[in-house]
Protein backbone atom coordinates (compact mmCIF):
# COMPACT_ATOMS: atom_id res chain seq x y z
CA UNK A 1 0.00 0.00 0.00
CA UNK A 2 1.32 3.41 -0.97
CA UNK A 3 0.92 6.67 0.92
CA UNK A 4 -1.80 7.86 -1.47
CA UNK A 5 -3.79 4.66 -0.98
CA UNK A 6 -3.47 4.83 2.80
CA UNK A 7 -4.60 8.45 2.84
CA UNK A 8 -7.55 7.62 0.63
CA UNK A 9 -8.50 4.74 2.93
CA UNK A 10 -8.41 7.11 5.90
CA UNK A 11 -10.78 9.46 4.14
CA UNK A 12 -13.25 6.72 3.27
CA UNK A 13 -12.90 4.57 6.37
CA UNK A 14 -12.72 7.29 9.01
CA UNK A 15 -13.84 10.73 7.83
CA UNK A 16 -16.71 9.78 5.53
CA UNK A 17 -17.76 6.75 7.55
CA UNK A 18 -17.79 8.54 10.91
CA UNK A 19 -19.72 11.45 9.49
CA UNK A 20 -22.34 9.10 8.07
CA UNK A 21 -22.59 7.50 11.52
CA UNK A 22 -23.03 10.89 13.19
CA UNK A 23 -25.82 11.78 10.75
CA UNK A 24 -27.66 8.54 11.47
CA UNK A 25 -27.26 8.95 15.21
CA UNK A 26 -28.48 12.53 15.31
CA UNK A 27 -31.35 12.12 12.88
CA UNK A 28 -32.57 8.67 13.88
CA UNK A 29 -32.13 8.35 17.64
CA UNK A 30 -35.23 9.10 19.71
CA UNK A 31 -34.18 11.02 22.78
CA UNK A 32 -36.06 8.51 24.94
CA UNK A 33 -33.61 5.83 23.83
CA UNK A 34 -30.53 7.83 24.76
CA UNK A 35 -29.18 6.76 28.15
CA UNK A 36 -25.74 8.29 27.80
CA UNK A 37 -25.84 11.74 29.38
CA UNK A 38 -23.46 13.30 26.86
CA UNK A 39 -25.58 12.02 23.99
CA UNK A 40 -28.85 13.10 25.60
CA UNK A 41 -27.49 16.64 25.86
CA UNK A 42 -26.24 16.47 22.27
CA UNK A 43 -29.65 15.37 21.00
CA UNK A 44 -31.42 18.16 22.88
CA UNK A 45 -28.96 20.65 21.40
CA UNK A 46 -29.42 19.18 17.91
CA UNK A 47 -33.19 19.29 18.27
CA UNK A 48 -33.09 23.05 18.78
CA UNK A 49 -31.22 23.67 15.52
CA UNK A 50 -32.91 24.51 12.25
CA UNK A 51 -31.99 22.73 9.01
CA UNK A 52 -29.28 25.20 8.01
CA UNK A 53 -27.70 25.15 11.46
CA UNK A 54 -27.66 21.35 11.42
CA UNK A 55 -25.74 21.32 8.15
CA UNK A 56 -23.25 23.81 9.58
CA UNK A 57 -22.82 21.53 12.58
CA UNK A 58 -22.03 18.56 10.33
CA UNK A 59 -19.54 20.66 8.39
CA UNK A 60 -17.85 21.56 11.66
CA UNK A 61 -17.78 17.91 12.72
CA UNK A 62 -16.26 16.92 9.38
CA UNK A 63 -13.60 19.62 9.63
CA UNK A 64 -12.72 18.59 13.17
CA UNK A 65 -12.29 15.02 11.93
CA UNK A 66 -10.04 16.20 9.10
CA UNK A 67 -7.98 18.48 11.37
CA UNK A 68 -7.52 15.76 13.95
CA UNK A 69 -6.44 13.19 11.39
CA UNK A 70 -4.16 15.77 9.77
CA UNK A 71 -2.57 16.48 13.17
CA UNK A 72 -1.88 12.81 13.73
CA UNK A 73 -0.42 12.40 10.27
CA UNK A 74 1.85 15.39 10.77
CA UNK A 75 3.34 13.62 13.79
CA UNK A 76 3.75 10.39 11.81
CA UNK A 77 5.38 12.36 8.98
CA UNK A 78 7.78 14.17 11.28
CA UNK A 79 6.29 17.59 10.55
CA UNK A 80 5.07 18.06 14.12
CA UNK A 81 6.33 16.80 17.42
CA UNK A 82 4.47 15.92 20.58
CA UNK A 83 5.70 18.34 23.22
CA UNK A 84 9.47 18.05 23.38
CA UNK A 85 9.64 14.54 22.01
CA UNK A 86 11.38 14.69 18.67
CA UNK A 87 10.50 11.28 17.41
CA UNK A 88 11.43 9.52 14.22
CA UNK A 89 8.51 7.25 13.41
CA UNK A 90 8.22 4.72 10.64
CA UNK A 91 4.96 3.22 9.45
CA UNK A 92 5.07 0.05 7.39
CA UNK A 93 2.15 -1.44 5.49
CA UNK A 94 2.09 -5.22 5.32
CA UNK A 95 5.26 -6.70 3.88
CA UNK A 96 6.44 -3.44 2.32
CA UNK A 97 10.11 -2.75 3.02
CA UNK A 98 9.78 1.01 2.67
CA UNK A 99 7.83 3.07 5.22
CA UNK A 100 4.75 4.82 3.87
CA UNK A 101 4.89 7.83 6.19
CA UNK A 102 6.63 11.07 5.35
CA UNK A 103 4.06 12.53 2.97
CA UNK A 104 0.84 11.14 4.43
CA UNK A 105 -0.46 14.52 5.51
CA UNK A 106 0.09 16.02 2.05
CA UNK A 107 -1.68 13.08 0.40
CA UNK A 108 -4.52 13.22 2.89
CA UNK A 109 -5.18 16.96 2.76
CA UNK A 110 -5.04 16.99 -1.03
CA UNK A 111 -8.14 14.79 -1.01
CA UNK A 112 -10.24 17.57 0.51
CA UNK A 113 -9.40 20.37 -1.89
CA UNK A 114 -12.14 21.48 -4.22
CA UNK B 1 15.19 57.56 18.59
CA UNK B 2 16.06 53.98 19.26
CA UNK B 3 12.66 52.88 17.98
CA UNK B 4 13.04 54.82 14.73
CA UNK B 5 16.24 52.98 13.97
CA UNK B 6 14.85 49.64 15.02
CA UNK B 7 14.89 47.15 12.17
CA UNK B 8 12.03 45.31 13.81
CA UNK B 9 9.86 48.44 13.85
CA UNK B 10 10.61 49.03 10.21
CA UNK B 11 9.55 45.47 9.54
CA UNK B 12 6.35 45.95 11.47
CA UNK B 13 5.52 49.15 9.61
CA UNK B 14 6.52 47.54 6.33
CA UNK B 15 3.95 44.84 6.93
CA UNK B 16 1.33 47.39 7.89
CA UNK B 17 1.88 49.24 4.64
CA UNK B 18 2.19 46.21 2.48
CA UNK B 19 -0.64 44.51 0.70
CA UNK B 20 0.18 40.82 1.20
CA UNK B 21 3.88 41.59 1.00
CA UNK B 22 3.42 42.76 -2.56
CA UNK B 23 5.53 44.94 -4.77
CA UNK B 24 3.49 48.07 -4.24
CA UNK B 25 4.01 48.05 -0.50
CA UNK B 26 7.66 47.25 -0.90
CA UNK B 27 8.15 50.28 -3.07
CA UNK B 28 6.27 52.57 -0.72
CA UNK B 29 8.46 51.66 2.18
CA UNK B 30 11.62 51.50 0.14
CA UNK B 31 14.92 53.25 0.89
CA UNK B 32 14.63 56.92 1.93
CA UNK B 33 10.85 56.83 1.99
CA UNK B 34 11.04 54.29 4.76
CA UNK B 35 12.51 56.85 7.14
CA UNK B 36 9.68 59.29 6.47
CA UNK B 37 7.02 56.66 6.85
CA UNK B 38 8.60 55.42 10.04
CA UNK B 39 8.54 58.91 11.54
CA UNK B 40 4.96 59.57 10.46
CA UNK B 41 3.72 56.28 11.76
CA UNK B 42 5.70 56.28 14.96
CA UNK B 43 3.09 58.09 17.05
CA UNK B 44 0.38 55.68 15.96
CA UNK B 45 2.49 52.63 16.48
CA UNK B 46 2.73 53.06 20.23
CA UNK B 47 2.48 50.23 22.63
CA UNK B 48 0.90 47.84 20.15
CA UNK B 49 3.92 48.00 17.87
CA UNK B 50 6.41 47.53 20.66
CA UNK B 51 4.52 44.52 21.93
CA UNK B 52 4.25 43.04 18.46
CA UNK B 53 7.94 43.54 17.87
CA UNK B 54 8.90 41.96 21.15
CA UNK B 55 6.68 38.98 20.49
CA UNK B 56 7.87 38.40 16.94
CA UNK B 57 11.53 38.92 17.70
CA UNK B 58 11.43 36.28 20.39
CA UNK B 59 9.67 33.85 18.05
CA UNK B 60 11.20 31.81 15.28
CA UNK B 61 8.11 32.40 13.14
CA UNK B 62 8.96 32.53 9.40
CA UNK B 63 12.48 31.24 10.00
CA UNK B 64 13.90 29.57 6.89
CA UNK B 65 16.26 26.62 6.89
CA UNK B 66 16.53 22.90 6.39
CA UNK B 67 13.60 20.89 7.69
CA UNK B 68 15.79 18.87 10.08
CA UNK B 69 16.99 22.11 11.71
CA UNK B 70 13.54 23.65 12.05
CA UNK B 71 11.21 20.86 13.12
CA UNK B 72 10.24 20.90 16.76
CA UNK B 73 12.02 24.14 17.57
CA UNK B 74 8.97 26.05 18.82
CA UNK B 75 5.58 24.99 20.15
CA UNK B 76 2.76 26.01 17.82
CA UNK B 77 5.00 26.31 14.79
CA UNK B 78 5.58 23.68 12.14
CA UNK B 79 8.20 23.18 9.50
CA UNK B 80 6.54 23.71 6.12
CA UNK B 81 8.35 22.41 3.02
CA UNK B 82 8.55 24.85 0.12
CA UNK B 83 8.44 23.28 -2.49
CA UNK B 84 5.91 20.83 -1.38
CA UNK B 85 7.63 17.59 -0.44
CA UNK B 86 5.27 15.12 -2.14
CA UNK B 87 5.85 16.74 -5.53
CA UNK B 88 9.57 17.04 -4.83
CA UNK B 89 9.92 13.37 -3.92
CA UNK B 90 8.11 12.38 -7.10
CA UNK B 91 10.02 14.73 -9.39
CA UNK B 92 13.46 15.60 -7.97
CA UNK B 93 15.87 12.63 -7.92
CA UNK B 94 17.79 12.45 -4.66
CA UNK B 95 15.47 14.83 -2.84
CA UNK B 96 15.95 14.46 0.91
CA UNK B 97 12.94 15.48 2.98
CA UNK B 98 15.06 16.16 6.06
CA UNK B 99 17.58 18.30 4.23
CA UNK B 100 15.05 20.25 2.20
CA UNK B 101 14.11 23.96 2.29
CA UNK B 102 11.41 24.73 4.82
CA UNK B 103 9.90 27.59 6.80
CA UNK B 104 8.44 27.72 10.29
CA UNK B 105 4.74 28.57 10.04
CA UNK B 106 1.79 28.50 12.45
CA UNK B 107 0.12 25.11 12.85
CA UNK B 108 -3.23 26.72 12.04
CA UNK B 109 -3.24 27.08 8.29
CA UNK B 110 -0.72 24.31 7.84
CA UNK B 111 -2.11 21.25 9.65
CA UNK B 112 -5.51 22.54 10.71
CA UNK B 113 -7.84 24.76 8.73
CA UNK B 114 -8.10 28.34 9.93
CA UNK B 115 -10.05 31.45 8.96
CA UNK B 116 -8.02 31.78 5.77
CA UNK B 117 -8.10 28.10 4.94
CA UNK B 118 -5.10 25.81 4.76
CA UNK B 119 -2.11 25.75 2.43
CA UNK B 120 -2.88 23.72 -0.67
CA UNK B 121 -1.43 20.23 -1.12
CA UNK B 122 -2.93 19.60 -4.51
CA UNK B 123 -0.20 19.29 -7.13
CA UNK B 124 -2.40 18.50 -10.10
CA UNK B 125 -1.20 20.37 -13.17
CA UNK B 126 2.10 21.52 -11.70
CA UNK B 127 4.63 20.87 -14.44
CA UNK B 128 7.94 21.99 -12.99
CA UNK B 129 9.70 23.24 -9.88
CA UNK B 130 9.31 26.87 -10.87
CA UNK B 131 5.53 26.45 -11.01
CA UNK B 132 5.52 24.57 -7.72
CA UNK B 133 7.47 27.25 -5.87
CA UNK B 134 5.28 29.98 -7.34
CA UNK B 135 2.17 28.12 -6.19
CA UNK B 136 3.61 27.53 -2.72
CA UNK B 137 4.50 31.22 -2.32
CA UNK B 138 1.00 32.25 -3.44
CA UNK B 139 -0.47 29.87 -0.90
CA UNK B 140 1.73 31.28 1.86
CA UNK B 141 0.49 34.78 1.10
CA UNK B 142 -3.12 33.66 0.88
CA UNK B 143 -3.15 31.80 4.20
CA UNK B 144 -0.60 33.96 6.06
CA UNK B 145 -1.02 37.51 4.66
CA UNK B 146 1.39 38.94 7.23
CA UNK B 147 4.32 36.79 6.11
CA UNK B 148 7.21 39.13 5.27
CA UNK B 149 8.79 39.16 1.83
CA UNK B 150 12.29 38.50 3.11
CA UNK B 151 11.87 34.86 4.18
CA UNK B 152 9.88 34.12 1.04
CA UNK B 153 12.69 35.49 -1.10
CA UNK B 154 15.16 33.54 0.98
CA UNK B 155 13.43 30.22 0.49
CA UNK B 156 13.06 30.83 -3.25
CA UNK B 157 16.79 31.46 -3.44
CA UNK B 158 17.49 28.40 -1.31
CA UNK B 159 15.55 26.24 -3.76
CA UNK B 160 17.40 27.76 -6.71
CA UNK B 161 20.73 27.01 -5.11
CA UNK B 162 19.86 23.48 -4.04
CA UNK B 163 18.11 22.39 -7.24
CA UNK B 164 19.62 24.66 -9.94
CA UNK B 165 19.05 22.37 -12.91
CA UNK B 166 15.32 22.23 -12.23
CA UNK B 167 14.97 26.00 -12.50
CA UNK B 168 16.30 26.25 -16.03
CA UNK B 169 13.71 27.39 -18.54
Descriptive overview:
The complex is a heterodimer of chains A (114) and B (169). Chain A is mainly α and 114 residues long. Chain A has one domain. In chain A, helix 1 runs antiparallel to helix 3, helix 1 crosses helix 4 and helix 3 packs antiparallel against helix 4. The longest helix of chain A has 27 residues. With 169 residues, chain B is mainly alpha-helical. Chain B folds into two domains: 52 residues, no CATH class; 104 residues, no CATH class. Chain B is 50% helix and 8% strand. In chain B, strands 1-3-2 form a three-stranded antiparallel beta sheet. The termini of chain B are far apart. Chains A and B meet through helix 3 and helix 4 of A and strand 2 and helix 5 of B.
Task: Write a compact overview of the structure shown.
The complex is a heterodimer of chains A (114) and B (169). Chain A is mostly helical and 114 residues long.
Amino acid sequence: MKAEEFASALKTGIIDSNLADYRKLFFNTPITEATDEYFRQALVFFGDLNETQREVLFRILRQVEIDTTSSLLSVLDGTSDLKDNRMSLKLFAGEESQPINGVLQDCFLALFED
Amino acid sequence: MYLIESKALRTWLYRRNTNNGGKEGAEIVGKEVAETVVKQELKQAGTEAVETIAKEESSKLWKVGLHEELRGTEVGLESHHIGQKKWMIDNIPGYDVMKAPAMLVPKIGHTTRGARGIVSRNTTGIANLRDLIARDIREMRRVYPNVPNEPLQKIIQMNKEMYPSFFKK
